[in-house]
Amino acid sequence: MPSPNRLLRPFFNRSxxxxxxxxxxxxxxxxxKGGARLSGLIVEIEAYIGTDDLGCHAxxxxxxxxxxxxxxxxHTYVYFTYGMHWMLNFVTERSGYPAATLIRSLVPLEGLETxxxxxxxxxxxxLTNGPAKLCQSLAIDRSLDGCDLCHPGSPLFIEALSQLxxxxxxxxxxxxxxTVPEPWRSIPWRFRVHPNHIDILVDKADQ
DNA sequence: AGCACGATTAACT
DNA sequence: GTTAATCGTGCTC
Length: 207
Description:
This protein is of the alpha+beta class and 207 residues long. The chain has one domain: Methylpurine-DNA glycosylase (MPG) (3-methyladenine DNA Glycosylase, Chain A). 17% of the residues lie in helices and 27% in strands. The longest helix has 9 residues, at 198-206. The mean pLDDT is 97. It binds a DNA duplex (13 and 13 nucleotides) through residues 46, 48, 55-57, 60, 63-65, 79-85, 87, 89, 102, 104, 122, 126, 130-133, 174-177, 179-180.
């Protein structure tokens, strides 16, 4: 059953910075085993753009690991790091150009019981407030690498809500790039929903 | 074949 | 604030 407001290919086939900015406040939906809906609002996201970006995995060229990032927009790029964590990205821009957005944090909306089970023993406020934590709660791993967000019936997609006003968007340097040379280390390609606006956003999404 | 390291997290002082 | 966990990946020999 196609979702009425699912974001489609043209949305992702644009400048990565625009896509990242506009994904803030949108609802990420994961159809779990059995079809149960797990979802959350995207409140933190980062952009990784091309082979010149020394913070981007594509800096080493096309490899089996980062292959999805070079493919068509609107697909996932899911990778494994630190020997234990999965990370979720959405591929942007034209096919052949490697760029993606890293989903760093969600506010959980649906399926919290399942998320709690997968994050057993951890505090309630740590279900999806980190790139590896949200992948654990949503059961995202290698099997979802290359998944087409725009394909009807896909187990992962974005439901469009209203666009966030600029007043509620914060930008800054990307996280975890301390060893990356400037300007890439400090370039403000991290986007967040202002903390004071998150409750309002959740209330609107609940309507 | 061997090596150094990572778009992180949790547990520690 | 510091550090261990843990292994796939890409690089060098």
